[in-house]
Design brief:
elongated; about 700 residues; alpha/beta
C-alpha cells in the first residue's frame, strides 16, 4: 500500500459508499444527525488501524471525502459522533467502528464481545449507559471493491410470467451433500452453477430458481451460544455483499459465474431479500452500522418513546423506508444486484413492512412507487410476502400491479383438501382457478400474481406434510414452542418414518396428488427445493437454525429408485403444463366464455359428471371435484380436466360420452404412460388425482 496522505480531499456526495475511480477512492455516507464523521483505514489483515481521517465535507446530509492513490482492497470503517440520547432516538458512539451500509466487500466476521454494544452490557441503566471500549478489534470491516466482471453475451432468460415455474432453494442446503462436486465447493455458488445441479433443474422443468437470502448476514449471538447458527439468513448485515460463506474462494465472481451458467441454461435467478429490518435487533442489540450512523433516520421509532423501536417485523427493529435516504439505500441495493449480478427478480421478505406509511399499509407507498416507476427494476420479477407482524399485517391480494404474492391461502386449502377436511370444495375451486377473488378484483392484475405453493422453506416439506401430524422442532432448543402449530398435515397412521407398505403407498399417492394439483392450477407454481425427491426435515417446520442434515438435500437418498420416480413424475407434470397453453392462462377464467359451443373456459363437476349446484357446493361431505379448462392448444382446441378424489374410497368419474379421453397422468399409477380411457368413466383410487385430455377440433390456419 502506498503511503497514506495526511487528510482527505473534499470528494463528492454521490455515489454513496466507497467508489474507486482509478486514481483513488471516494467515500460517502449518509447521516443527518451526526456532528462529525471519521474514516478509519486498516492494514490488509484488518487488525491494525493505520489512519483516522476526518470526513471533510457534509453536503445534503451526506458526509464525503476522497482518498488519493487508494485502491480496491483497502480495508475501512466509519466512526460517527453525535448525541448519545436513546430517549430521543440518538445512539451515536464514536468508540464503535461502523460498517459502511454500501460496503461491497467484507473482511472477517464479527467476534461477539460486549464491546460490540453501544451501552454497558449488564449495566443497571441498560441501554441508557454508555460503553467506551473500542469495538474495532472484533468488528467486521468493509473492503473497497471494483466490479469488472465480463458478462459479454449473457442474456436474461426473460421468461414470461405465465410460463414461469419457481424452485425455492437454499444455496448451501441444495448442494452441501452433492458428491459430484469437490468438497470445498459444496454448499456454495460454485456448486449451484455446477452442471449436475443445473441438469437436475432442467430435467424437472424449472424456469426460475429463487434463492433464500444471499446478502451477507450476521450469526446471532444467542444462537451461537446454543451451538446453533442462523441458517436461513434473514438477518442482514450488508445489503450490497454476497454472504462470504457461500463463496468457496471468497470471490464474488463465483456467484456471477453461477448466475451466468444458469442463464445459459434458460433459468432465471431470483433473490429472497430482507429490507424490512437489519441484524442490529432491538434497543438492546449491538451497534454495527445503521444504529451508530443515524439511528433516528434509519429506523422507525415509537413516537411516544423514542428509545424503543417499531417492531412490525418481529425481529426487534423496522427500517424506515419513509426516509428518502433509507429508501435510496434499498433502491441502490436492488439496482446493484440487478446490474452487477444480473439478478432476474426479487422476493421481498415481509413485503407489507416495505409498504407501510404513517397510517399503515398502502399499495401506493413510496417503496412501491419507486419500484414501479424504475425503468430497470420494474421489468424484473417482483414478488412480495404479503404479511408482517404489525397491525393490519395480512395484505394478501392488495399489492399494486406488477407484483406477484405468495398465496398462503392456496397452500392451506390444498393441504386441507387432500387431508380430507370437510367443506373444502368451494375454497379449493377459488384457489385452483387463480384466486381471482384476491387478485382480480379491480382488473389490473393477472393470474400470475398468485404464487401457488404447497410447501416453502417456512414450514414442513411435502414429505413431512404427509408424514407428521404435529411439528417436531425439538432440535431447535426452544421446547418445540417455535414454528406454527397449523400445518394442516396428516401422518396417515404413524408419525414419522414407517415400514408399513400401505401407509407408505398412501403417503406417496397424496404427495403426487398435491403436486398434480399445484401444477394444474391457474397461477405461478412454486416448488420447494427437494420436494421433487422426498426431502424430509424430520418434522421440523422451522429449521432456521439447522445447518445440518435436517435442512440439506440428501442427493444419495434422492437417487434411490423410488425418489427418482417421484422426480420423474414432477418432470412429467411440468411437461404437461408446458405442452398445453390452456394450463398457462393469461387471464382469469370465470366460466362465462364458451371456447366452443357448450364448453366453458372453466367448469366444475364431480364424479357424477354433472355441474355442481349450490347444494352440491355446500355439501360438506363432497370430496370429489373435477376442474375442466378449455382453450386453444398448439394445433387444436383442447379440454383438460383434473380429477380429484380426496375421499377414502375409489370413485368412478363419469366423462362426457361424445369425447375421446386420454389419461395423461394418474397419481395412483405414476408408472403408466398416457393412454386412452376405456368406456364412459374413469376409476380413480382414493386420495388420487389424474389429468385427462380430449380435443375439441383443429384450429383454423390463419396464415396466408
Amino acid at each position: 500500500m502506498p503511503s497514506l496522505p495526511d487528510r482527505l480531499e473534499a470528494g463528492n456526495p454521490y455515489p454513496l459508499g466507497a467508489t474507486w475511480n482509478g486514481l483513488g477512492v471516494n467515500f460517502a455516507v449518509f447521516s443527518r444527525h451526526a456532528t462529525q464523521m471519521q474514516l478509519c483505514v486498516f492494514d490488509s489483515s484488518g487488525r491494525r488501524e493505520l489512519h483516522r481521517y476526518e470526513m471533510p465535507e457534509h453536503t445534503d446530509e451526506v458526509w464525503h471525502g476522497y482518498l488519493p492513490d487508494a485502491m480496491p482492497g483497502l480495508v475501512y470503517g466509519f466512526r460517527a459522533y453525535g448525541p448519545y440520547e436513546p430517549q430521543n432516538g440518538h445512539r451515536f458512539n464514536p468508540h464503535k467502528l461502523l460498517l459502511d451500509p454500501y460496503a461491497k466487500g467484507l473482511l472477517g466476521t464479527l467476534r461477539w464481545t460486549d464491546a460490540a454494544y453501544g451501552y454497558r452490557v449488564n449495566s443497571p441503566r441498560a441501554d441508557l449507559s454508555f460503553d467506551r471500549r473500542d469495538s474495532a478489534p472484533a468488528m467486521v470491516k468493509g473492503v473497497v471493491a471494483h466490479d469488472a466482471f465480463l458478462w459479454d453475451d449473457d442474456r436474461r432468460p426473460n421468461t414470461q410470467w405465465s410460463d414461469t415455474v419457481i424452485y425455492e432453494a437454499h444455496v448451501r442446503g441444495l448442494t452441501r451433500l452433492l458428491q459430484d462436486v469437490r468438497p470445498p465447493e459444496r454448499g456454495t455458488f460454485a456448486a449451484l452453477g455446477h452442471p449436475v445441479t443445473i441438469e437436475h433443474l432442467k430435467r424437472i422443468g424449472i424456469t426460475a430458481i429463487e434463492l433464500m437470502p444471499v446478502q451477507a448476514f450476521l450469526q446471532d449471538r444467542e444462537l451461537l451460544q446454543r451451538n446453533l447458527v442462523n441458517y436461513w439468513g434473514y438477518n442482514t448485515l450488508s445489503f450490497f455483499t454476497v454472504e462470504p460463506g457461500y463463496l468457496s474462494a471468497g470471490d464474488a465472481d463465483e456467484a456471477r459465474i453461477a448466475i451466468r451458467r444458469l442463464h445459459a441454461a434458460g433459468i432465471e435467478v431470483l433473490l429472497d431479500v430482507v429490507y424490512n429490518h437489519t441484524c442490529e435487533a432491538d434497543r438492546m442489540g449491538p451497534t454495527l452500522c445503521w444504529r451508530g450512523l443515524d439511528n433516528a433516520s434509519y429506523y422507525r421509532l415509537v413516537d411516544e418513546e423514542r428509545r424503543s423501536y417499531v417492531n412490525d417485523t418481529g425481529t426487534g427493529n423496522t427500517l424506515n423506508l419513509t426516509n428518502p435516504r433509507v429508501l435510496q439505500m434499498v433502491m441502490d441495493s436492488l439496482r446493484y444486484w440487478a446490474r452487477s449480478f444480473r439478478i432476474d427478480g426479487f422476493r421481498f421478505d415481509l413485503g407489507v413492512t416495505l409498504g407501510r406509511e404513517a397510517h399503515g399499509f398502502d399499495p401506493g407507498a413510496g417503496f412501491f412507487d419507486a419500484l414501479r416507476q424504475d425503468p430497470e427494476l420494474s421489468q424484473l420479477k417482483l414478488i412480495s410476502e404479503p404479511w408482517d407482524m404489525g397491525p393490519g399485517g395480512y395484505q394478501l391480494g392488495r399489492h399494486p400491479p406488477g407484483f406477484a404474492e405468495w398465496n398462503d391461502r392456496y397452500r392451506d386449502t390444498v393441504r386441507r383438501y387432500w387431508r380430507g377436511d370437510p367443506g373444502m370444495r368451494p375454497e379449493l375451486a377459488r384457489r385452483l382457478s387463480g384466486s381471482a377473488d384476491l387478485f382480480g378484483r379491480d382488473g389490473t392484475r393477472k393470474p400470475w400474481a398468485s404464487i401457488n405453493f404447497v410447501a416453502s422453506h417456512d414450514g414442513m416439506t411435502l414429505e413431512d406434510i404427509v408424514s407428521y401430524t404435529h411439528k417436531h422442532n425439538e432440535e431447535n432448543g426452544e421446547n418445540n414452542a417455535d414454528g406454527t402449530n397449523e400445518n394442516h398435515s396428516c401422518n396417515w397412521g404413524v408419525d414419522g418414518p414407517t415400514s408399513n407398505p400401505s401407509i407408505t403407498a398412501r403417503r406417496e399417492r397424496v404427495k403426487r396428488s398435491m403436486l398434480a394439483t399445484l401444477l394444474f392450477s391457474v397461477g405461478t407454481p412454486m416448488v420447494l427445493g427437494g420436494d421433487e425427491c422426498g426431502r424430509t426435515q424430520r418434522g421440523n417446520n422451522n429449521p432456521y437454525c439447522q445447518d445440518s442434515e435436517v435442512s440439506w438435500l440428501d442427493w444419495q437418498e434422492a437417487r434411490r429408485p423410488d425418489r427418482l420416480a417421484l422426480t420423474a413424475f414432477v418432470g412429467r407434470l411440468l411437461r404437461i403444463r408446458q405442452d398445453h397453453p390452456v394450463l398457462r392462462a393469461h387471464d382469469f377464467p370465470h366460466g362465462q366464455i364458451q371456447t366452443v359451443p357448450g364448453i366453458l373456459d372453466i367448469d366444475w363437476t364431480d364424479e357424477r359428471g354433472e355441474r355442481l349446484t349450490p347444494e352440491d357446493w355446500n355439501n360438506e361431505e363432497g370430496r370429489a371435484l373435477v376442474m375442466a379448462v378449455s382453450g386453444n392448444g398448439t394445433l387444436q382446441r383442447e379440454l383438460l380436466a383434473l380429477l380429484m378424489n380426496a375421499s377414502g374410497t375409489a370413485l368412478d368419474f363419469h366423462l362426457a360420452a361424445d369425447c375421446c379421453w386420454e389419461v395423461l397422468i394418474d397419481s395412483a399409477h405414476p408408472e403408466r404412460m398416457p393412454h386412452p380411457v376405456e368406456g364412459k368413466s374413469y376409476r380413480l383410487k382414493e386420495h388420487a388425482a389424474a389429468i385427462i385430455i380430449t380435443t375439441l377440433g383443429e384450429l383454423q390456419d390463419t396464415r396466408n
